[in-house]
Design brief:
The chain has helices spanning 22-33, 47-56, 75-85, 100-108, 121-133, 160-170, 180-201, 244-253, 262-269, and strands at residues 8-18, 36-44, 63-66, 90-95, 113-116, 143-147, 151-157, 209-216, 220-227, 272-275, 281-287. By secondary structure, the chain is α/β, with parallel strands linked by helices. The chain has a six-stranded antiparallel sheet with strand order 6-7-8-9-11-10, with helices on one face. Strands 2-1-3-4-5 form a five-stranded parallel sheet, sandwiched between helices.
């Protein structure tokens, strides 16, 4: 019986599965063939066969799902080769290994997501669809800085792809694990402040960069988000909860997307939020334990 999902890829999407275990490779290929929008799934057993399939393909694959430990050419080497080629496919790693240093190396190599085996069909579909949606521009590099004592920073082009990858990989790093309730609030704050930096800080200009940083200490989590925009005065931001209808009408009048609750929301879920004098760097703090 086919697994039913409402998720879908763009029409005629082409996927490449790189997995040395025959039974798992067959299962992954058959499962991904059921995903709406998929026109072709090619399965190969290692990095060498993957590069051959890429060279023989008439059109680039839209997504590559690869294992790490494989004979002849492993997944890390394959990722490096794809990075050298500036290959445009979204890259998702599926591995039984979840060490932080390996995860970081894959992110530096261009991976959009990293899944730990075993993975459910729903998680697989969700990751594949999101990866294609947030596929990075192969011509754009990002800088990843990771300290196993609790510091994780990414600097890159002002794009939703960079924000998505940072948020996904932040949740994977074992050294940065925090209680789930706090983690959800931190991820939400990161998403809202990151979008604000991209949309209103850098005004959607891809020639500008953003920096996303997280420091986890025994007592608190610190987010630092910086853009290259002209900044703003956070004191003049209206509280949308005072007049929700008027707030929506005003944003529509100004041609802005519906929303605008982001910073107001962050102020309520984080314990402290401050901006620098220029208004283009925000620091948000969440305490891990109640403060007396």
């Amino acid at each position: 019986m086919a697994y039913m999902s409402t998720l879908s890829l763009p029409p005629d999407s082409r996927l490449l599965v790189v997995e040395d275990m025959d039974s798992l490779r067959l299962y992954l290929c058959e499962t991904l063939e059921e995903l709406a929008g998929v026109s072709q799934v090619v399965g190969v057993s290692d990095g060498i066969e993957a590069l051959a399939a890429i060279a023989e393909a008439e059109q680039p694959f839209d997504l590559i799902l690869t294992d790490i430990t494989m004979p002849r050419m492993d997944g890390e080497t394959l990722i490096g080769k794809l990075q050298e080629q500036r290959y445009p496919a979204a890259l998702v790693v599926l591995s039984a290994h979840g060490q932080d240093d390996l995860i970081i190396r894959c992110m530096r190599g261009g991976a959009v997501d990293y899944l730990i085996k075993p993975v459910s069909i729903n998680d697989l579909y969700t990751a594949v669809v999101a990866a294609v949606q947030h596929a990075p521009d192969p011509e754009i590099d990002i800088h990843v800085d990771y300290d196993p004592f609790g510091w994780f920073e990414v600097c890159g082009t002002s794009s939703y792809s960079v924000l998505y990858r940072y948020r996904r990989f932040l949740g994977l790093l074992s050294k940065l694990h925090i209680p789930e309730e706090v983690a959800n609030e931190v991820r939400l704050a990161l998403e809202e402040l990151g979008r604000n930096a991209i949309e209103w800080g850098n005004r959607g200009q891809r020639d500008k960069r953003i920096s996303l940083s997280c420091r986890i200490l025994p007592s608190k989590v610190i987010l630092v988000i910086t853009d290259e925009g002209e900044g703003f005065d956070p004191r003049i931001l209206p509280d949308p909860s005072h007049d929700p209808i008027g707030h929506i009408e005003q944003r529509q009048k100004e041609g802005k997307r519906l929303g605008g609750y982001g910073i107001h929301l962050v102020r309520n879920i984080m314990d402290k939020i401050t901006w620098n004098d220029a208004g283009n760097k925000v620091i948000a703090v969440k305490y891990l334990h109640p403060r007396s």
